[in-house]
Every structure is written in C-alpha cells, then in structure tokens.
Specification:
The structure holds two protein chains of two kinds.
Chain A: H1 10-48, E1 56-60, E2 63-67, E3 85-86, E4 92-95, H2 98-129, H3 132-147, H4 150-169, H5 177-201, H6 205-213, H7 218-229, H8 231-247, H9 250-255, H10 273-280, H11 289-323
Antiparallel strand pairs in A: 1-2, 2-4, 3-4
Helix pairs in contact in A: 1-11, 2-5, 2-8, 3-5, 4-5, 5-8, 6-7, 8-11, 10-11
Chain B: H1 5-9, H2 16-31, E1 35-46, E2 49-60, E3 64-68, H3 75-82, E4 92-100, E5 103-104, H4 110-116, E6 117-120, H5 131-141, H6 147-160, H7 164-167, H8 180-192, E7 198-202, H9 210-223, E8 228-232, H10 236-242, E9 245-249, E10 255-260, H11 261-266, H12 271-277
Parallel strand pairs in B: 3-8, 3-9, 6-7, 7-8
Antiparallel strand pairs in B: 1-2, 1-4, 4-5, 9-10
The chains are: A mainly alpha, B alpha/beta.
Amino acid sequence: MSVSMDELGPGLKIRMKNRNIDCYVFFTLALISLVALGVILYFIFAQAIPFVGKLKVVPEGMGAIVKWGQDYSHTRLWDLFSTRWSPASYKHQFFGMVPMIVATTVITLGAMALAIPFGLSAAVFVGEVGPRWLKDIFKTVLELLAAVPSIVYGFFGLIIIAPWVRESFDVVSGSNGLSAALILSIMALPTIASLAEDALHAVPNTYREASLALGATKWQTIWRTLIPAASSGVIGAGILGMGRAVGETMAVLLVAGNSAFLTWNIFRSMRPLTAGIALDMAESVHGSAHYHALFALGAMLLLIALVMNWTAEWFHVRLLRRQGIREG
Amino acid sequence: MVKRPEHREIDATAGRDAQVDATRAWVKRTFYGETIIEIWDLDFFYGRNRVLHDVSLGIPKDGVTAIMGPSGCGKSTLLRTLNRMYEVVPGARATGEVIFEGENLLKSDPVILRHKIGMVFQRPNPFPKSIFDNVAYGPRIHGLRNRRKLADLVEDALHRAALWDEVKDRLKDSAFSLSGGQQQRLCIARALAVRPRILLMDEPCSALDPKASDRIEHTARELAEELTVIIVTHNLQQAGRVSDNVAVLLADGELAEFGPTRSIFESPQDERVADYLCGRFG
C-alpha cells in the first residue's frame, strides 16, 4: 500500500522544498568561490598581456633594450624571459624576470628543504613519541606561531637571522637568499607540523599494532608504516607550506636583499617575484610597460604555484595508486 | 572455588623453580606434552581497573589452545600479555610472571619477544602495500635484504597460510584487492614470515563469513603441527572444532577452568563454566 505525500502531513512537503533550497544555497556559495578565482585569473592576465607590444625593442646582448618611444608595437613576450631587470632608467629599460623566478625557486626550495624535515620530525615526536600533555602545548604554540603577522617575522629575520647568517657563513651581507629561506621555513613550519601531525594521527591504529606485533621497533614502525600511510597528508602539508613560502612577501622583502641580478647562489642578495612586485608597484606609471610587467610577474607567480601544486598532486596520486588505495 | 588444577597438586611453599618444574610435570601428565609458556599469578590493570585476577596457567607446546569466556572477561588482554601488545594502551600494567624460554617475558625486550611470538588481530589489518611487501615486511625489519631469500620466505609463508595458490600471479597487487578472508590469511602469512614459535590469534574470524572462518580454522589446525597456536574466541563451536586445550575465563577475569577441550566440554567442574558452556550467559 502506498502512502501519498499529503497523508504524511505538511512537514515532509516543507522539508522536500527546503532540501532544494539548501541545494541552491550550497551551489551558489560554491559558484561564488569559483567565480572569484576566475575573476582573479582574468584580471591578472588581462593586465599582464598588454605588456606585449607596449614598447620599441632593440635586441642587444643578453637581454633586450627597450626604448621609450612613440612606436608601441615592439615589446615581445620573450623579453620577459631575459635575464636583466632594469625598468626604471630613462633611456634603456629591461624587463627580464628570470632573476626573480630563479630567486623565488631557490628561496622556496631552500625553505622547504629546512621546513619539511623539521616539521615532520616535530609532528612525529609530538604525535608518536612524546607524552600527551606535550601535544596540547605544541598545538597551542603552533597556532600562535601561525597567527604572528608576517612583518613581525620580517623584523625577527632582520634583527636575529640576518646578522647570524652574516657571521656564521662569513658573507658580506646577511640580507640574502639564505636568510629569506630561513625565515620562510620558520613561517611554514607551523602549517607543515600541524597538518603532518593530523595526518599521522589519522593513520589507523591497526597499522601501528600490526607493525609492532611483527617485532618492529617504534622507529621502524614510524618510518616504514606510519609515514608511508600518512604520506598523502604529509604531502598536502608540504604543498600548503610551500604555497605560503612562494606567496610570502613582507618577511622576505625585509631580509632577501632584493637585488635583481641573476644568481643561483643562496648566499647572494636575491629579489623574489613577490618582493619585486611590492617594491616596484608604487613607482610604476599606471599603464606603462613597467606596470604591465609587474602584472606579468604576478601571473608568473601564479603559474609557479599552480605547477608546484600539480606536481605534488601527481606524486600524491601515483603514491596512492602504488598503495592500492586508488585504482589506476 | 576457582579451579587451578596445577595449583591443587603443587606445594605452594616450594621455591619458584620447584613450582615451575611441578607445573611442567602436571601439564605433561594432563596434555601428554611440554609447556611453552607458564603464567604465574598474573594480575592485569587498566589504570585502577583490575582486568585479570591472579591467573596461573601452563600452555602446552603442542596443539591449539583456546582462550574462551564471556565478553569483557579479559581474554584478549590475556593474549596480549603474551606478546606485550597491551603496552600500546596507556595505563595498562601487568604484574606477575610469564615464563617463556626461561625468562619472565614481562621484563624482557618486547621487540625480540614479538619476533618469536606472532599475532593475528580481530580484523584483517594488512598494510597499504602490495601483497608481497606485506609478507616481506617482517623479514625486512629484521634486516633481511637478499631478494631471493626474501622471495622464498614469502612464498613459504603464503603456502603455510594456504594463500599461495590464490595470489601467486598477483603478488604486486595491493593487499586491499583481496577479500576479507584472504586478507586475514595474508595477515597470518605476514606473522609466519618471521618464523615465530607461537602464533596468537585474537578472534581471527569475528569479521569473516562462515566459509572464510572455516578456512582460517583449517589453517590454524595445520599450523599447530609446527608451532603453538593460541586462539581467543567467544564462539563455543569454533573452540570445540579447533582447539586441543581450552582455558575458560569468567567475567571478573579469573581463570575458572583449564584442561583438554573434550574433558572441559563434557564435564566442566566449575558450575559457572557449565552455565557458560550451556549458553546460560555470556
């Protein structure tokens, strides 16, 4: 015997109606975030693309000399990938962003090389080895660290880390890539440690028991079972930490030295993309080639972040497939 | 009231060595074999909560020994005491003596101990690795690097767990691609690969269907030919089918009866055990 909707009373009807409304609300909210992303992408690229064709270009040596003139048809996209950045001179202007791309890459990789091992070790110690009360303190301290404004980290870098780097490594100036990498690793550490700890905590206890019951020591269990099983979360932690490092501006600006010369040497002064934009934006003439070049830097930053994300995601999927969690 | 047969016959005032010898002799008479583990006055606490009361028991070396009892009587705890797996629970504490290979295992190194005493858990818990890597995990952590030896060991362990024929063509597949019963046999193979003397099974069939349970029981019987199997179960029929000897714990964590399965099932001496076996509680 079937029961009609009316017999079940009006409550059900209202609920059925509301169900659809809920659906629309969530769909709209999801759509808004998608639209926001789309708008950001559109404006960055819309402002970056006019760079091409803005100035007259005379090729010379490594880069391209750009002359400020009447003919606005000769800047090419390729000029952005030359190795000299010198946008402010009156006669010759260079818009090569390679030094900044290199600086961002070196500083980010340096920061991750420090932050991931330390963050993971901290997570392992707190989650698996140390006593329980330590965990609560640790979590609180991490949240505090994550809440410190980045300019404060910059001061810390300027006063403590830069002098320390100068004296320890016997270099001319403490404002260099290494100082920036150090300060970024400290900033990314809370994110990485906290997320990695969550990932380890989410590993089923049965894996721990299975490994221990086979006569594995605590360390063997951590290395061979827990970290591999938590790897997707640990990689996610790394990605988020790296995201913070790539996009960080203020702290880096204060300690990196900011000279826009091409160098792979982390002990030299470097200007990463973020600092490049922040330093020049106030000085550039609205609508000039310089102005559009800065948007091109922003677009480049976005691309680097996306490529890093995709690479990490690719590793992640491959790993899950090997563990058999996701079908190939 | 509590029947601890070995104690009835053994002089409590004698020295510990004499008592151990007397227990061995008692087990030998009763089960026609030797003991592999002797448990003396074992008390177990989770925090202030006492789970095992003064358990004393000699486990025969040959055959399958079942530990039975109603839910919450501490049978899994007793099993986990034997390979010190209770230590993963904070606040768990055991006092007394558990003699294995002439040493009190409560005071020995748990890593070496677990190498000799393997364990299979209630639910199949393979690692998120390939079938081969699951079985090779134990030998690898004990330092075996030689690929051929490793492959031989894995094959042997899978044979003994009666899984080889089903997985020989797909050793590289994920362990999660196996069915529940196969996963449990994989876990048995994984435990066997480190060549333990004793295999502990903690309700190994509780998550399996009857057919898969049947295969696990067969495997357990076959394994008993070469090593000591101790199995915890709350299933009376299973204990009857699989075990040679049975220990019955009661709800307050005392050992009520211990002896050959047949004699306990046919003529239990403790009234409460008789009630339990008739299904009046538990």
